[in-house]
Structure formats: C-alpha cells, structure tokens
C-alpha cells in the first residue's frame, strides 16, 4: 500500500514538472510588446526607442539603415518530447511610415527571419539593409522576409510604389500585391497607401502542415480581415535553419521616411497574441503638415511689414519680380513636382557664381541645398519659349520625374518663370565623366571603374527603351551627360532632348537633335530618332571611355581625327588594343576591353537594323552572350572622312548613300543642335 502511494506520488510529481517545463517552453517561444519601453531588443544603425516606447527604425536621413531584432534566436527544431521540426509561426505588428515629402516614400521596411543579425555588406535603399546586389538571390542566405515597399525598383521587378511582397533569399519577391484590405462589412477590397502616415496592422501566419504563408494588412483600427492580402504556398524546410532570429530592417534612399513600429507579438508554433490598440504608443506630431498653412500666414505678414517700412510701391514690385513665377491652372495636377522659385533662389544663394557647377548648351547648373529638407540638389536654368508647347513640355518633365533607376540622375521637380525653366536634380558630387576622362588635373579612372560606368549607362538605356511604361529616347548620350555620384557610379542625366512614345508605336520626331560626333547617320537624313540612334550614340560613348579621347579631334593626324574610323582601322590591322587610353597603363582585362571596343564598332554600324538592341548590348557586357563577329573590314561601320586630309574648316561628313551626303562643321561639335 505504501509502495503504491509512493509510485502515485512520483507519477504526479513527474507530470507536474513536465507541465511546468511545457509552459516555460511556450513562454520562451512567444512574446508581445505594446510599445518598447525597457525592451531588450538588438538595435543597430540609426534605430532607436522613443521615451514613450515608440520604436523608430529610420528617420529623414538619406541612404541610412535601421534594424531591430529580438535578442535571442528561436529554435525551429526539436520539441521536449520528440525530434520533429516545427516551422510554423505567427506574428503581428503595428507600423507607420511618415514620409519626408507627402508623395515620395523612402524606402520601406521588411519583417525578416534570418539565421544571423550580422548583415555586413548590406546596403540601404531598395535592399532594406539586409542584402546587396551580390548577395541577393543566394540560397545560403536562408532568409524569409515580408517587405513593405514604398519605391518601385525596376531591377528588383517591383510592381508599383506601394506594395507588400514575400521574399525568399532575394528581394525579388516570389509574390507581391498592391496594399489593400478586405472590408468584411462592405465585402470589397479597400486600397491603402503605405506612406499615408497612418498606423496599420500586419498579420503574418505560416502553417507548416499546409505549407501556406498568409499576409494580411488593415488599418490599425480594424479587426483582422477574413481574407488575407497574400496567400502563398511555400515550403520553408530548406530555408529555415534550426536557430533563427526575427525582427525588422528598414532603409532610406534618395528620399526618406520616419518608419515606426508601435507594437509587436510573435509565437513560434502557435497563434500570436493580439495587440491591444489602446495600449500602443502615439506617433509624433507631424510638424511638416503644418508648414504650408504657416507659410500662407507668414508671407503676407512679412510683405505687409516691408510695405510699411519701405513706404514705396517700387520696393514691393521689385521684390515680387525677384521671386515671380508663371503658374497656370493646368499645372495644379503637378503640385507635388512644382518647387517654388523662392526656395530655389535661397537654395543656390541667389544663383551666385560661387555655386555654379558648369555651363552647357542648355544653360547653367548650380549647386543648392533646399531649405525645406536640407537636401543637396543641382538646379539647371534652361531657356524656354513659354508660348510653344509648354503644357506638353511640362508633362514630359513630370514623366521624367517618375523614372526610377540606380543609373539615372533623379529629377525631383521644376519651376517656371518667364522665358525660363528650372529643373531640380539629385546632386552628383563628382561631376561629369568627361572631366575625369579629359582633364589632366584630375586623377584618371582605372579600367575597372570605367567598365562599371559603361555597364551602368547600358543598364539605364535598357530601362528607358524597354522596361519603363513608355519608350524613352534620350537622344544625347555622351560622356559629358554621364554624372558620377559619391561612389563614382555613372548616372545618365540631361534629358533636355528626350522624347517619349508608347511601346509598339512610332516616335514622332522630325528635327535633327543631338551632338555632332554622336549622331547616327540616319538622323541627318530623316530627322527621326529611334532606339537604334541611341545605341549608335552609346557605341561612340563606349569608345570614348575606353580610348580616353573625344569622338572627333581635329588636331590629330588625318587618319585619327574620327575616333570610330581610327578604332576600325586599328582593328583591321589586328591592333585594336593599341587604341586603349594610355593612362590606363595596361592595367585592364583584355577580354573586357576587346568586348567594349568591338561592341562599340558594332553599335556604330551605319545600318540601324545591324546594331544590337540595348538588351543585347547589356548581355554582351555582362558576359551572358557571345559578341558576334564584326563584318569583314568593318563595312558599314562608323563615320568616314571626306578624304585623307582635313581642311582648315574641319568638315566631317556622314555617308548615307552613294548620292546623299550631309556635313557638319567640327567647330560646332560641342554645341547642341536645336529643336524639340
């Protein structure tokens, strides 16, 4: 009897210990935060916790990263009683994105499950601070992420500027959707804008048995909708390791946002606890939203004071003319892209010569710092006849502002005055490429950097020709229109001659535009620019970068005056590498150099149909396709001089047919031919 009682007591004690361990394990597998005051999170880069418990991942700093991860990894491996893996998890969080500018987000955030919190080498902008262009797509990443993306990145195949995506080892989403939620009351989907500044709720649930990942989004005031935004079949057995961290990573790019997390719960193996909205911290007051009303009050007040002090209508008239702009009713739809002349005047310190960056065929360019955002910009002043096609011209400018590519100079906005147009671009601290190529007082570029710049410009032209919603003809590709950012990455700029047309349609251009030395022969005959004529200019640009000289240099020996013809003649002699810029000093990869030189010749073929497309050109430069053999003796390639001698007038001819020849004076080789 005593023995039986002892056995029963032993059994009950063992059961109690097992249940206690099970409860402890369950507690260790889940957490919930209503605000993060006192939370022991792993914060890195610019992430911080506000005194009221609000977790701020990023602020309005450009090109920055902010991360916050739970400090201990979760074990997606064995339970207390068996060795089976459990990959199921559930999480929910409340977030808000408050952009620096109302219509431009930057860049977004991602909930991530990763085997490590060491993201060495990760970059900001479209990579959210968790990957880079080299690591993106590697199976060894063992990364699962749900991205809340506010900028459309063509290289990552984003669907729009406000979407949710499911990412596995890569930031090219396996499935994505515009941000909407299902209203159970109205039985229909409702759209949301990530950068609205309002708090939103996200639920992420993975069922290992059904191998299904569900993502649901709704305003924070709503209960969880019955229908998820994304429901994706997904086998995570090869992605998830035994030990995985959970958390958030956010980044900014050329534009920035305050990205906040208000609350967060997580459960590995069961349903995450629901957040109590009433316990979440409040967002900071949006000061910027009050700027415009304040400005409307302050400006008339200041004007009235000036009138009283000056006691002169002349002073008032002079001040008005100083900041006078042209505004018409049809421009109201372009409000976010319109920047006041007063701001530009202050940004450039009155367009003083000290801020002058350079002069070109279209006008002067000034460096400036916008007072509203403290952002460095380049302001180009362009002469423009306001009576001729202004509405279409401004529409094209606004369209250019929507172009998004890492190798394009970003156009932020515009301003109009009488006879003058001001364009506001991203500031490129290292200036234009031709300064580093042709000016002896600056350090020369090594071959690796030149090859990277060539590939970058090729990628930008491919985006303009094929990957954007319309076909964009640049029509003035040359070294002086390629600008270098802080890391010496090449960005194609100066869209003063650009033209847009729909895919599948024929461009309506009738005037000869471009720069002598880069013009395709067919343009001089028909005046019509096509993607093939952009390819011709790019071919000349490639030779310009590789050879370190301009397309036409009249002071050289007659056989070397025209760059394309000289490279072609050297190729015929089997000495094409003799054209390489001597400043490279032989420090180059011969295979890459030969590809660039021969591809440059192929792109400058006088027959447009014989030139490769920009997609083919990118494939050749990336080594994903073999460059075809050049035609025998280069027939049909490049520009041909009238004779072996160049006259004092330095006349260059561009053969079109046996009975049709057009000529240009080399003295105009740096000018922009007129006509939009």
Automatic annotation (TrEMBL):
Family designation: In the C-terminal section; belongs to the protein kinase superfamily. Ser/Thr protein kinase family.
Superkingdom to which the source organism belongs: Eukaryota
GO biological process, one term: defense response to oomycetes
Enzyme class: transferase
Keyword Chaperone: no
Topology within the bilayer: Single-pass type I membrane protein
Keyword line: ATP-binding, Glycoprotein, Kinase, Lectin, Membrane, Nucleotide-binding, Receptor, Serine/threonine-protein kinase, Signal, Transferase, Transmembrane, Transmembrane helix
GO CC terms in record: plasma membrane
EC number from the UniProt entry: 2.7.11.1
Record-linked InterPro entries: Kinase-like_dom_sf, L-type_Lectin-RKs, Prot_kinase_dom
UniProt entry tagged with the keyword Membrane: yes
Entry protein name: non-specific serine/threonine protein kinase
Pfam families: Pkinase
A GO molecular-function descriptor: ATP binding
Span of the signal peptide: none
Subcellular localization: Membrane
């Amino acid at each position: 009897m005593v023995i039986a009682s002892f056995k029963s007591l032993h059994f009950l004690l063992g059961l109690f210990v097992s249940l206690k361990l099970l409860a402890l394990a369950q507690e260790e597998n889940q957490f919930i935060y209503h605000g993060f005051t006192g939370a022991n999170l792993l914060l890195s880069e610019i992430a911080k916790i506000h005194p009221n418990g609000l977790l701020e991942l990023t602020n309005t700093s450009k090109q920055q990263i902010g991360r916050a991860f739970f400090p201990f990894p979760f074990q997606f491996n064995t339970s207390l009683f068996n060795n089976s893996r459990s990959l199921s998890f559930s999480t929910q969080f409340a977030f808000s994105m408050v952009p620096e500018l109302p219509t431009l987000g930057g860049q977004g955030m991602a909930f991530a499950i990763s085997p490590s919190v060491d993201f060495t080498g990760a970059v900001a902008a479209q990579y959210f601070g968790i990957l880079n262009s080299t690591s993106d797509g590697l199976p060894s990443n063992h990364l699962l992420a749900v991205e809340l993306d506010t900028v459309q990145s063509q290289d990552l195949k984003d669907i729009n500027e406000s979407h949710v995506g499911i990412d596995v080892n890569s930031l090219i989403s396996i499935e994505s959707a515009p941000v909407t939620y299902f209203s159970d009351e109205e039985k229909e989907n409702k759209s949301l804008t990530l950068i609205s500044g309002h708090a939103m709720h996200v639920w992420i649930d993975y069922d290992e048995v059904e191998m299904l990942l569900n993502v649901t989004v709704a305003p924070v005031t709503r209960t969880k909708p019955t229908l998820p935004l994304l429901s994706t079949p997904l086998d995570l057995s090869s992605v998830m390791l035994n030990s995985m961290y959970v958390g958030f990573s956010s980044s900014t790019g050329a534009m920035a946002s305050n990205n906040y997390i208000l609350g967060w719960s997580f459960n590995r193996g069961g349903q995450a606890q629901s957040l109590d909205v009433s316990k979440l911290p409040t967002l900071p007051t949006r000061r910027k939203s009050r700027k415009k009303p304040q400005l409307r009050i302050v400006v008339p007040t200041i004007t009235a004071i000036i009138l009283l002090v000056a006691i002169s209508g002349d002073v008032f008239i002079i001040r008005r003319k100083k900041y006078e702009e042209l505004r018409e009713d049809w421009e109201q739809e372009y409000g976010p892209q319109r920047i006041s002349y007063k701001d530009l005047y202050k940004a450039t310190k009155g367009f003083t010569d000290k801020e002058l960056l350079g002069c070109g065929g279209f006008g002067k360019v000034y460096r400036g710092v916008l007072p509203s955002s403290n952002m460095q910009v380049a302001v180009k002043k362009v002469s423009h006849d306001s009576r001729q096609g202004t509405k279409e011209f401004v529409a094209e400018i606004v369209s250019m502002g929507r172009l998004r590519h890492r190798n394009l100079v970003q156009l932020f906005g515009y301003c109009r005055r009488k006879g003058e147009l001001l364009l506001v671009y991203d500031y490129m601290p290292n200036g234009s490429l031709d300064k580093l190529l042709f000016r002896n007082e600056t350090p020369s570029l090594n071959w690796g950097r030149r090859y990277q710049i060539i590939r970058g410009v090729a990628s930008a032209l491919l985006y303009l020709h094929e990957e954007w919603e319309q076909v964009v003809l640049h029509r003035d590709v040359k070294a002086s229109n390629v600008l270098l950012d802080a890391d010496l990455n090449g960005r194609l700029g100066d869209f003063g001659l650009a033209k847009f047309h729909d895919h599948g349609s024929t461009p309506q251009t009738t005037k000869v535009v471009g720069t002598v030395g880069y013009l395709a022969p067919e343009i001089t005959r028909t005046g019509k620019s096509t993607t093939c004529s952009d390819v011709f200019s790019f071919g000349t640009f490639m030779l310009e970068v590789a050879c370190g000289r301009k397309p036409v240099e009249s002071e050289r020996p007659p056989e070397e005056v025209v760059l394309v013809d000289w490279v072609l003649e050297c190729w015929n002699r089997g000495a094409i590498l003799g054209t390489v810029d001597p400043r490279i000093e032989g420090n180059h990869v011969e295979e890459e150099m030969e590809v660039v030189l021969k591809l440059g010749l192929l792109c400058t073929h006088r027959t447009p149909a014989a030139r490769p497309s920009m997609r083919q050109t990118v494939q050749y430069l990336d080594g994903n396709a073999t460059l075809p053999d050049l035609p025998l003796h280069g027939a049909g390639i490049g520009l041909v001089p009238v004779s072996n001698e160049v006259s004092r007038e330095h006349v260059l001819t561009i053969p079109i047919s046996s009975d049709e020849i057009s000529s240009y004076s080399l003295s105009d080789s740096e000018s922009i031919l007129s006509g939009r």
